Amino acid sequence: MSARRRIAAPLAAALALSVTACAPALPETVVPGSAVTVGWPSAFTSGNAEAAPTPGNLDIAAMTRAGFGDLVDGEFVADDSFGTVSIVSDDPFTVRYDLREPAWSDGIPLDAADLLLGWAAASGFIDVTPPGADGNATAGDALPTDAATQVPRIDEFARAIEVTYPTAIDDWQSRLTVAVPAHVVAASALGVEDPMEAKQALITAIEQDDTAALASIAEVWREGFTVGGKVSDGALISSGPFRVDEVAADAQGRSLTLVPNAAYRGAATPKVAKIELVPAGADPVAEVGAGVDVVQVAPLAANREAIDDLERRDFPVDTTHDGTVWTLLLRPGGVFSATPARAAFLRAIPSAALMERGAGAWASAYTASSALLAAPGGRAYDIIVEDAGFAAALTGADDSGREREAAGIAAGTPVCIVFDRADEFAAGAFSAARDAAAEAGWNLGDCGTEDLAGALEQGGWDAALVRVTIPQTADEIGAQWGTDGLASLVGLADPAVDALIGQLATTTDVYAERDVRAQIEAAIIRDAVALPIALNPVITVTDKSVAGIAARDGRGASLTAGAVQWEVIP
């Protein structure tokens, strides 16, 4: 099934008259009747992706939430049509978040109340952590360590707030987001029906530190935007280019219809009149051109031939990465207690061989990487690779067996390597690592598992073949590589790394940030605890009847993030 212009002329005319009579006109870019169907593997469960950051909720947020900009490869790309972010004081470090004139899809303007609510949730001023939460984090997650607790100065006339932080922060441009409408939260939490009065009531509750009101606000923030929950229709109010028009009640949030948001006037506006998200079938590639217009899939041996066939028939096929890098991690303990032993082992394992064997028929889809803190193609990557010394430190051993002996490791010393046995790349990469290690006198043991997370948590392993999230901020780098990181990957304890992460956390200049990231990478390389291998690819397959579908690289850069560019080919 190709993209469609489904609405019959009489019905389309009637709908157009109805919409014109009761709502703002759609952007002129929208082609009436056009539609694109997406084979979607996720589910929409909450209109607040900050409170419930599942892949599906983040996908919908990418289409329905506007913001000051996005982090792309660790660097901020601004959206000036939404507003501006600027440093107004270095001491104390104060940032002004200033809205232009965006509006919610119900016609209520975004203003200082919405910014203040976003600040209160991000800073911990209101307790948005669900009761009983244990605070555990996974790789890439981080808790703010430098949140501002002083209530921001509000400029209601200018739709702006000024936030004073205890110290300079590296992510000052992206720290504040507007996830949900303040007037909806306040109406539900405080019982104030008039939208503008509700906004003012929320501001008052925060400024006066009203404990009871803030508890109610936090509860609505956490739970109210669950689809079909307390705020119901309010959960679907949008500030972005699209809004959710319908959620199928019988599909657990897996079937949705999105339409252009008539109140949105961003830099780029939608071209299609409807986007339908439907459950991806057991063989999503086979549905392209027959049941759906676009799908995203992992590169697997089972779909290589089918995708090749579509590409030969001029179906667009695009390869991006998901913001993770395949990595061989070493745990600093046991056989790898000493840095020389770790370095000797990693230098004996050629990352190119692991990528080739792991990728198999999909070798062309994988991009080799020599960094943990940036992705190839990103602005910081070349600087990190040039300055960090990865190639000299962890590749190209002249005599890997002699290096092992020099490190005091006897021939045949066993190394337990854990990996996901069901993952094609991991299984192939393990085989390549085992062969290379054997040549250097290491005895690489198969500790493959069907429960990778459980095996990593249980411990007892020496090495692990895993996908590691490329961190975007200093907090995330600290969570992964800091001594007390909440999501520590290998239990690394290195004061030099901690000091550099602390320095990065207070660096506000983008060029200085790149230099400090390179220094952190160099310190991790010196510790010899990780060998980056390749970026994890995602394959996007598109029907020939649609255009403009260009997935973006990186974590959080979902297919739907670029939906404003989609269009139907006449």
Task: List the topology elements.
Elements: E1 4-5, H1 9-22, E2 31-40, H2 55-64, E3 69-72, E4 75-78, E5 83-90, E6 93-99, H3 112-123, E7 153-155, E8 160-164, H4 182-190, H5 195-207, H6 211-224, E9 242-247, E10 256-260, E11 272-279, H7 284-287, E12 294-297, H8 301-312, E13 317-330, H9 339-347, H10 351-359, H11 381-388, H12 390-394, H13 400-406, E14 413-418, H14 424-439, E15 442-446, H15 452-458, E16 463-469, H16 474-481, H17 495-505, H18 510-527, E17 530-542, E18 546-547, E19 567-568
Parallel strand pairs: 2-11, 2-12, 14-15, 14-16
Antiparallel strand pairs: 1-2, 3-4, 5-6, 6-8, 7-8, 9-10, 10-11, 12-17, 13-16, 13-17, 18-19
Helix pairs in contact: 3-5, 4-5, 4-6, 9-13, 10-14, 11-18, 16-17, 17-18
Features:
signal, 19 strands, SBP_5, Dipeptide-binding Protein, domain 1, 570 residues, SBP_5_dom, alpha+beta
Number of helices: 18
- What's the Cα radius of gyration? 25 Å
Give a short account of the largest sheet: 11 strands, mixed
- CATH-defined fold name of the domain at 323-536: Dipeptide-binding Protein, domain 3
In helices, the fraction of residues equals 25-40%
Question: What is the total tally of β strands?
Answer: 19
Average of per-residue pLDDT values: 88
Structural class category: alpha+beta
CATH superfamily of the domain at 323-536: Dipeptide-binding Protein, Domain 3
CATH class of the domain at 323-536: Alpha Beta
The CATH architecture designation of the domain at 323-536 is: Roll
Straight-line distance between termini? 15 Å
Domain Solute-binding protein family: 88-359
Signal peptide: 1-23
InterPro entries: SBP_5, SBP_5_dom
Protein name: ABC transporter substrate-binding protein
